[in-house]
C-alpha cells in the first residue's frame, strides 16, 4: 500500500440498511470524490457481516476497519498502516482511556476473558473494531462465507501475526450507539459458538464433574443409611440436587441447540449479506 499522502487510497462505506439518510449522503460523496465507494445492503445484517461486505469490496494492500462515529481517530490510520507494512497481518488498537458507558466496559472485560479461552487471544490484546489488516489476511478471512461472521474469530483462525498500537479514544461525534444489551449478548454468543467448540468441551467437563460428584454423594448416602438406619430421607437435598442437575442439563441443551441451529441455517444457504446497490460498477 502506498502512503495516504500521495493520494493512493479508497474509502469504502457500508450502509447496513440504516433508517436515516446515510445512503443518500454516501451517494453524494461518491459522486464528489472518486475514491469513495459505497455499498448498501438490503437489510440490517449486523456489524460483522457488514464488515465482511466492506472487506470483500476493498482493493488495497492494507485495509483499515473503523466505525463511523469518530470515536476512532482517523489520525491513527497511518500508524496502523505502517505497522502492517512492517510485516504483521493484523494490527489492533488499544485505547488509553475508553469513552464508553460503564456496562459496556464491564461487558468488554467479560468478552476479553472469554475470547482468551475460546480464541486463544493474548491477554494484553484488546479486540477493538478499529484495526488494520494485510491483503493476505483479508483474503483468508473472506474464505468464510457462512451467515454467522465474527471477524475477530476468523482472524485468529487464519493468523498469529497480530499486534496492537495505543491510541486515544474520542467522545462520540454525534448520535447514540446501536449496541444495546441484547445485541451485545448476541455478539458474545456468536463469538463463543461461531468460532470454537470450546463451549461444548466445557459442557463435557461439567458433565463428567457432576457425574463424579453424584457418585460421591451416592456413596455417602449409602454409608449414612447403613450406619444410621434411623435417619429420615433428606427430601430437601434430593430436590436441590434434581434442580441443580436439571438446570445444568438445560444450559447444555441450549448450547447444543445453538450449534445445531447454526448448522441448520448454514445448510439452508442463508446469505452472509445481500447487496442492494453500490456506487460503482462490479468491474471497478
Model description:
The structure is a single chain. With 284 residues, this protein is α/β, with parallel strands linked by helices. The chain has one domain (10-284): Spore Coat Polysaccharide Biosynthesis Protein SpsA, Chain A, CATH 3.90.550. It is 49% helix and 12% strand. It has nine helices and seven strands, in the order βαβαβαβαβααβαααβ. It has helices at residues 22-32, 47-57, 77-85, 102-118, 135-141, 151-158, 181-194, 198-227, 235-267; strands at residues 11-15, 36-41, 62-65, 90-95, 131-134, 162-167, 275-278. The strands form two sheets. A four-stranded mixed beta sheet has the order 3-5-4-6. A three-stranded mixed beta sheet has the order 1-2-7, with helices on both faces. Helix 4 packs parallel to helix 7 (181-194) and helix 8 (198-227) packs antiparallel against helix 9 (235-267). The chain is elongated, with a radius of gyration of 24 Å. The two termini are 18 Å apart. Mean pLDDT is 80; it is low at 1-5. It holds the Pfam family Glycos_transf_2. InterPro entries: Glyco_trans_2-like, Glycosyltransferase_2, Nucleotide-diphossugar_trans. Keywords: Cell membrane, Glycosyltransferase, Lipopolysaccharide biosynthesis, Membrane, Transferase, Transmembrane, Transmembrane helix. The chain crosses the membrane at residues 200-223, 235-256. Residues 6-110 form the Glycosyltransferase 2-like domain.
Q: What strand order characterises the main sheet?
A: 3-5-4-6
- Top-tier CATH class: Alpha Beta
| Succession of helices and strands | EHEHEHEHEHHEHHHE
Provide the residue-averaged pLDDT: 80
Number of domains: 1
Rg over CA atoms: 24 Å
How many β-strand stretches?
7
CATH fold type: Spore Coat Polysaccharide Biosynthesis Protein SpsA, Chain A
Amino acid at each position: 500500500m502506498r502512503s495516504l499522502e500521495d493520494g493512493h487510497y479508497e474509502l469504502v462505506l457500508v450502509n447496513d440498511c440504516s433508517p436515516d439518510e446515510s445512503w443518500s449522503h454516501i451517494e453524494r460523496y461518491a459522486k464528489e470524490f472518486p475514491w469513495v465507494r459505497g455499498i448498501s445492503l438490503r437489510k440490517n445484517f449486523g456489524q460483522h457481516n457488514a464488515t465482511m461486505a466492506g472487506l470483500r469490496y476493498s482493493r488495497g494492500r492494507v485495509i483499515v476497519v473503523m466505525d463511523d462515529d469518530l470515536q476512532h481517530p482517523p489520525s491513527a490510520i497511518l500508524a496502523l498502516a505502517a505497522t502492517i507494512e512492517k510485516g504483521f497481518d493484523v494490527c489492533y488498537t488499544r485505547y488509553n482511556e475508553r469513552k464508553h458507558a460503564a456496562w459496556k466496559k464491564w461487558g468488554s472485560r467479560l468478552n476479553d476473558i472469554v475470547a482468551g479461552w475460546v480464541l486463544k487471544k493474548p491477554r494484553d490484546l484488546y479486540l477493538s473494531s478499529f484495526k488494520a489488516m494485510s491483503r493476505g489476511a483479508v483474503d483468508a478471512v473472506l474464505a468464510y462465507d457462512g451467515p454467522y461472521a465474527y471477524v475477530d474469530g476468523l482472524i485468529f483462525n487464519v493468523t498469529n501475526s497480530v499486534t496492537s498500537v495505543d491510541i486515544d479514544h474520542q467522545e462520540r461525534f454525534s448520535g447514540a450507539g446501536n449496541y444495546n444489551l441484547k445485541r451485545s449478548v448476541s455478539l458474545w454468543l456468536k463469538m463463543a459458538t461461531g468460532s470454537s467448540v470450546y463451549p461444548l468441551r466445557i459442557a463435557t467437563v461439567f458433565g463428567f464433574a457432576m457425574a463424579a460428584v453424584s457418585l460421591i454423594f451416592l456413596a455417602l448416602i449409602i454409608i449414612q443409611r447403613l450406619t444410621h438406619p434411623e435417619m429420615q430421607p433428606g427430601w430437601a437435598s434430593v430436590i436441590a440436587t434434581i434442580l441443580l442437575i436439571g438446570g445444568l442439563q438445560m444450559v447444555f441443551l441450549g448450547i447444543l441447540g445453538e450449534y445445531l441451529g447454526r448448522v441448520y441455517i448454514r445448510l439452508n444457504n442463508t446469505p452472509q449479506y445481500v447487496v442492494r446497490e453500490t456506487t460503482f460498477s462490479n468491474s471497478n
